[in-house]
Amino acid sequence: MADEIRKFKDIRVGLTTESLPVDEFMAELDHIQGSVCVTRNQLWSHVADGTLSEEHLRRFCKEYYFLGVTYTGEFASLVANAPDPDALTLDQSEHFAHWIQNLADETGY
User: Fold this and answer.
1) Please, what's the largest Cα pairwise distance for the chain?
2) pTM score, whole prediction
């Protein structure tokens, strides 16, 4: 089972659209990037351009690690309690399968 290659299923059944030309896609991506909170957080821009001091980078890495360590334990509870309104049973839930695979990946399985 360890050698098995797993792939995510497309859980967005029926929500796919036609591909955009590259220039339109990049323009849309720039617009989205300008509206998400990453741009409001000055830390990420300093990480990206390499201007964050080593002291602050170390602290950021520690906080990011702590978040991962503590959040992963709670993630199982979120997965177990996440409703899938399109599935009648847990065996039919693509939502559950997607998140449980993500949980396994986060914990190193």
Assistant:
1) 52
2) 0.39
